Hints:
The chain is of the alpha/beta class. Helix content is 40%, strand content 25%. The protein has helices spanning 4-19, 23-32, 41-46, 51-61, 67-80, 102-111, 149-155, 167-179, and strands at residues 96-99, 116-122, 125-132, 135-141, 158-163, 184-190, 195-201, 207-213. Helix 1 crosses helix 4 (51-61) and helix 4 (51-61) packs across helix 5.
Amino acid sequence: MPNLENLKKQAKLILRWHRERHYPVAAQIREHMPRFLNMSDSEILRARFKLSDAQEMVAREHGFDSWQALKAGLSTASRKVKSAPSKATIVGAEPQLLVTDINRSCEFFREKLGFSLVFSYGDPPYYAQVARDAARLNLRCVDGHVIAATARDREELLSASMTVATADEIKLLFLEFQSAGVTFHQRLKKQPWGARNFVVRDPDGNLLLFAGPAN
Protein backbone atom coordinates (compact mmCIF):
# COMPACT_ATOMS: atom_id res chain seq x y z
CA MET A 1 0.00 0.00 0.00
CA PRO A 2 1.46 3.43 -0.96
CA ASN A 3 2.55 5.67 1.89
CA LEU A 4 0.89 9.10 1.91
CA GLU A 5 4.06 10.88 3.01
CA ASN A 6 6.00 9.29 0.17
CA LEU A 7 3.29 10.30 -2.29
CA LYS A 8 3.51 13.89 -1.04
CA LYS A 9 7.26 13.83 -1.66
CA GLN A 10 6.65 12.38 -5.12
CA ALA A 11 4.27 15.25 -5.96
CA LYS A 12 6.82 17.82 -4.78
CA LEU A 13 9.49 16.15 -6.89
CA ILE A 14 7.27 16.28 -9.98
CA LEU A 15 6.63 19.97 -9.31
CA ARG A 16 10.39 20.63 -8.98
CA TRP A 17 11.10 18.75 -12.22
CA HIS A 18 8.51 20.89 -14.00
CA ARG A 19 10.02 24.10 -12.65
CA GLU A 20 13.50 22.96 -13.70
CA ARG A 21 12.23 22.11 -17.21
CA HIS A 22 13.18 18.43 -16.88
CA TYR A 23 11.87 17.12 -20.21
CA PRO A 24 10.96 13.50 -19.25
CA VAL A 25 8.36 14.80 -16.78
CA ALA A 26 6.46 16.46 -19.63
CA ALA A 27 5.61 13.06 -21.15
CA GLN A 28 4.46 11.78 -17.76
CA ILE A 29 2.23 14.84 -17.27
CA ARG A 30 0.70 14.41 -20.72
CA GLU A 31 0.06 10.69 -20.09
CA HIS A 32 -1.84 11.20 -16.83
CA MET A 33 -3.36 14.69 -17.07
CA PRO A 34 -6.10 15.00 -19.73
CA ARG A 35 -5.88 18.79 -20.04
CA PHE A 36 -2.27 18.50 -21.21
CA LEU A 37 -3.00 15.74 -23.74
CA ASN A 38 -2.62 17.82 -26.91
CA MET A 39 0.31 19.95 -25.75
CA SER A 40 3.95 19.51 -26.76
CA ASP A 41 6.71 18.97 -24.20
CA SER A 42 7.77 22.62 -24.45
CA GLU A 43 4.20 23.86 -24.02
CA ILE A 44 3.69 21.66 -20.96
CA LEU A 45 6.90 22.90 -19.34
CA ARG A 46 5.89 26.53 -19.99
CA ALA A 47 2.34 26.02 -18.69
CA ARG A 48 1.25 26.90 -15.17
CA PHE A 49 1.69 23.84 -12.98
CA LYS A 50 1.01 23.94 -9.24
CA LEU A 51 1.49 21.54 -6.36
CA SER A 52 -2.19 20.64 -6.58
CA ASP A 53 -1.63 19.64 -10.22
CA ALA A 54 1.29 17.44 -9.24
CA GLN A 55 -0.81 15.86 -6.49
CA GLU A 56 -3.63 15.19 -8.95
CA MET A 57 -1.11 13.58 -11.30
CA VAL A 58 0.15 11.27 -8.52
CA ALA A 59 -3.46 10.36 -7.68
CA ARG A 60 -4.23 9.52 -11.31
CA GLU A 61 -1.10 7.37 -11.54
CA HIS A 62 -2.56 5.30 -8.69
CA GLY A 63 -6.03 5.03 -10.21
CA PHE A 64 -7.82 7.89 -8.39
CA ASP A 65 -9.50 10.93 -9.94
CA SER A 66 -8.23 13.40 -7.36
CA TRP A 67 -5.83 13.85 -4.45
CA GLN A 68 -8.73 13.80 -1.99
CA ALA A 69 -9.97 10.52 -3.43
CA LEU A 70 -6.47 9.08 -3.13
CA LYS A 71 -6.22 10.07 0.54
CA ALA A 72 -9.65 8.61 1.26
CA GLY A 73 -8.69 5.38 -0.52
CA LEU A 74 -5.46 5.09 1.44
CA SER A 75 -7.31 5.68 4.68
CA THR A 76 -9.79 2.91 3.88
CA ALA A 77 -7.03 0.53 2.80
CA SER A 78 -4.96 1.19 5.90
CA ARG A 79 -7.81 0.02 8.12
CA LYS A 80 -7.87 -3.27 6.24
CA VAL A 81 -4.16 -3.93 6.55
CA LYS A 82 -3.43 -6.15 9.55
CA SER A 83 0.34 -6.24 9.27
CA ALA A 84 3.14 -4.63 7.30
CA PRO A 85 4.73 -6.67 4.51
CA SER A 86 7.83 -8.61 5.47
CA LYS A 87 9.68 -7.50 2.33
CA ALA A 88 9.37 -5.06 -0.56
CA THR A 89 7.64 -6.11 -3.77
CA ILE A 90 9.17 -5.27 -7.14
CA VAL A 91 6.30 -4.31 -9.44
CA GLY A 92 8.12 -3.76 -12.72
CA ALA A 93 11.35 -3.96 -14.72
CA GLU A 94 12.61 -1.83 -17.60
CA PRO A 95 15.43 -3.39 -19.66
CA GLN A 96 17.82 -0.85 -21.16
CA LEU A 97 18.84 -1.33 -24.79
CA LEU A 98 22.02 0.29 -26.11
CA VAL A 99 21.40 1.82 -29.53
CA THR A 100 23.34 4.04 -31.92
CA ASP A 101 20.42 6.12 -33.25
CA ILE A 102 17.50 6.94 -30.94
CA ASN A 103 15.21 8.17 -33.72
CA ARG A 104 15.81 5.07 -35.84
CA SER A 105 15.20 2.79 -32.86
CA CYS A 106 11.99 4.59 -31.83
CA GLU A 107 10.70 4.31 -35.40
CA PHE A 108 11.51 0.58 -35.44
CA PHE A 109 9.64 -0.11 -32.21
CA ARG A 110 6.64 1.99 -33.29
CA GLU A 111 6.34 0.94 -36.90
CA LYS A 112 7.52 -2.68 -36.72
CA LEU A 113 6.71 -3.88 -33.19
CA GLY A 114 3.63 -1.82 -32.33
CA PHE A 115 5.14 0.03 -29.36
CA SER A 116 4.34 3.65 -28.52
CA LEU A 117 6.79 6.36 -27.52
CA VAL A 118 6.51 7.26 -23.82
CA PHE A 119 9.15 9.98 -23.91
CA SER A 120 12.29 11.08 -25.70
CA TYR A 121 14.91 13.20 -23.94
CA GLY A 122 17.70 15.41 -25.21
CA ASP A 123 18.38 17.61 -28.25
CA PRO A 124 19.38 15.63 -30.20
CA PRO A 125 17.69 12.82 -28.26
CA TYR A 126 19.96 10.35 -26.46
CA TYR A 127 17.45 8.60 -24.18
CA ALA A 128 13.90 7.37 -24.76
CA GLN A 129 11.32 4.92 -23.50
CA VAL A 130 8.90 2.85 -25.57
CA ALA A 131 6.01 0.77 -24.28
CA ARG A 132 3.51 -1.82 -25.44
CA ASP A 133 0.91 -3.00 -22.95
CA ALA A 134 2.82 -3.77 -19.72
CA ALA A 135 6.25 -3.94 -21.38
CA ARG A 136 8.55 -0.90 -21.19
CA LEU A 137 11.99 -0.63 -22.76
CA ASN A 138 14.52 2.15 -22.23
CA LEU A 139 16.71 3.13 -25.17
CA ARG A 140 20.14 4.64 -24.46
CA CYS A 141 22.24 6.08 -27.26
CA VAL A 142 25.92 5.04 -27.36
CA ASP A 143 28.76 5.51 -29.85
CA GLY A 144 29.35 2.25 -31.65
CA HIS A 145 28.40 -1.27 -30.70
CA VAL A 146 29.26 -2.28 -27.13
CA ILE A 147 28.90 -6.01 -27.82
CA ALA A 148 30.51 -7.59 -30.87
CA ALA A 149 27.87 -8.87 -33.27
CA THR A 150 29.63 -12.21 -33.68
CA ALA A 151 29.73 -12.79 -29.92
CA ARG A 152 26.07 -11.75 -29.53
CA ASP A 153 24.91 -14.18 -32.19
CA ARG A 154 27.19 -17.02 -31.11
CA GLU A 155 26.16 -16.84 -27.46
CA GLU A 156 22.59 -15.71 -28.23
CA LEU A 157 22.95 -12.80 -25.79
CA LEU A 158 19.42 -11.48 -25.22
CA SER A 159 18.84 -7.80 -24.48
CA ALA A 160 15.23 -8.24 -23.30
CA SER A 161 12.60 -10.94 -22.80
CA MET A 162 8.86 -10.32 -23.06
CA THR A 163 5.99 -12.75 -22.54
CA VAL A 164 2.36 -13.21 -23.50
CA ALA A 165 -0.22 -15.26 -21.63
CA THR A 166 -1.41 -17.84 -24.17
CA ALA A 167 -0.23 -20.04 -27.04
CA ASP A 168 -2.60 -18.27 -29.42
CA GLU A 169 -1.16 -14.87 -28.54
CA ILE A 170 2.46 -15.84 -29.23
CA LYS A 171 1.38 -17.11 -32.66
CA LEU A 172 -0.54 -13.89 -33.34
CA LEU A 173 2.43 -11.78 -32.27
CA PHE A 174 4.79 -13.68 -34.53
CA LEU A 175 2.44 -13.28 -37.51
CA GLU A 176 2.04 -9.56 -36.74
CA PHE A 177 5.79 -9.01 -36.73
CA GLN A 178 6.26 -11.20 -39.80
CA SER A 179 3.76 -9.12 -41.78
CA ALA A 180 5.58 -5.95 -40.66
CA GLY A 181 8.83 -7.22 -42.22
CA VAL A 182 10.70 -7.73 -38.96
CA THR A 183 14.11 -9.46 -39.06
CA PHE A 184 14.09 -12.65 -36.98
CA HIS A 185 17.17 -14.12 -35.31
CA GLN A 186 14.99 -17.15 -34.50
CA ARG A 187 11.57 -17.86 -35.94
CA LEU A 188 8.65 -19.20 -33.87
CA LYS A 189 9.79 -22.44 -32.26
CA LYS A 190 8.53 -24.88 -29.65
CA GLN A 191 11.12 -25.42 -26.92
CA PRO A 192 11.72 -28.64 -24.92
CA TRP A 193 10.83 -26.87 -21.65
CA GLY A 194 7.25 -26.22 -22.74
CA ALA A 195 7.47 -22.71 -24.21
CA ARG A 196 7.03 -21.41 -27.73
CA ASN A 197 9.17 -18.39 -28.59
CA PHE A 198 10.91 -16.34 -31.24
CA VAL A 199 13.70 -13.77 -31.28
CA VAL A 200 13.63 -10.42 -33.09
CA ARG A 201 16.74 -8.50 -34.10
CA ASP A 202 16.50 -4.70 -33.84
CA PRO A 203 18.47 -2.28 -36.11
CA ASP A 204 21.43 -2.36 -33.68
CA GLY A 205 21.52 -6.15 -33.43
CA ASN A 206 19.85 -6.32 -30.00
CA LEU A 207 18.10 -9.67 -29.60
CA LEU A 208 14.56 -9.43 -28.21
CA LEU A 209 12.88 -12.63 -27.03
CA PHE A 210 9.09 -12.99 -27.19
CA ALA A 211 7.68 -16.08 -25.47
CA GLY A 212 4.44 -17.78 -24.51
CA PRO A 213 3.10 -21.23 -23.61
CA ALA A 214 3.47 -23.95 -26.21
CA ASN A 215 -0.13 -25.18 -25.70
